[in-house]
């Protein structure tokens, strides 16, 4: 595989990643009014490195354009990577994590209350809510700031009490268990 084809393939992958982030931003704008309990997303651990990669890709892109290297594959790949590191990834921090009227925005994506098949807590250096997606069996995490821990537990109990979150059918259902105790 030549370098041109590899950069074109990377460009397609980064295009998909950029479109997913733009979709999340659009969904977040639509859902902003329905926020129940939200907080800013955490800063990625290596955020300065991400910004530095974006700047380096910008310099590379400008250099290639100035020198007349206009091959479509490399130009597309470099542009998509630059858009991801310098634009989309920093903008993705604008999505506020937490609870909305129709679901929970986890650290990675939005999950409707009806799609939650189970939940648990991991308490350590940071408090983390682990949600199990019913259909896919995927575990999603949401780091909960310490000041919101009690409010999140109350909100989860309310959603379980109104059957927005329902665990029946996810295991042995003996009907002798109050689901609100799972919070």
Order of helices and strands: HEHHEEEEEEH
How many domains? The number is: 2
Enumerate how many helices there are, as a single number: 4
Write out the strand line-up for the largest beta sheet, numbering strands in chain order. 1-2-3-4
Give an overview in words.
With 183 residues, the chain is an alpha+beta fold. It has 4 helices and 7 strands, in the order αβααββββββα. The strands form 2 sheets. The chain has a 4-stranded antiparallel β-sheet, covered by helices on one side. The protein has a 3-stranded antiparallel β-sheet with strand order 5-6-7, with no helix packed on it. Helix 1 (3-31) packs parallel to helix 3 (72-91) and helix 2 runs antiparallel to helix 3 (72-91). The protein is elongated and about 65 Å long. The mean pLDDT is 88.
């Amino acid at each position: 595989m030549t370098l041109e084809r590899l950069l074109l393939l990377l460009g397609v992958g980064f295009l998909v990643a950029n479109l997913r982030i733009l979709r999340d931003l659009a969904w977040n704008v639509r859902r902003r009014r329905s926020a129940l309990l939200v907080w800013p997303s955490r800063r990625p651990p290596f955020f300065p490195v991400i910004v530095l990669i974006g700047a380096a890709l910008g310099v590379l892109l400008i250099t290639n354009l100035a020198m007349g290297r206009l091959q479509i594959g490399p130009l597309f790949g470099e542009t998509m990577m630059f858009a991801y590191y310098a634009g989309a990834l920093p903008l993705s921090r604008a999505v506020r994590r937490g609870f909305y009227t129709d679901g929970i925005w986890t650290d990675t994506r939005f999950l409707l209350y009806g799609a939650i098949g189970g939940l648990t807590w991991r308490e350590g250096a940071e408090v983390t809510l682990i949600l199990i997606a019913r259909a896919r069996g995927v575990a999603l995490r949401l780091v909960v700031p310490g000041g919101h821990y009690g409010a999140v537990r109350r909100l989860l109990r309310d959603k379980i009490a109104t059957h927005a979150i329902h665990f029946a059918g996810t295991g042995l259902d003996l009907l002798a268990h109050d689901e609100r105790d799972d919070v």
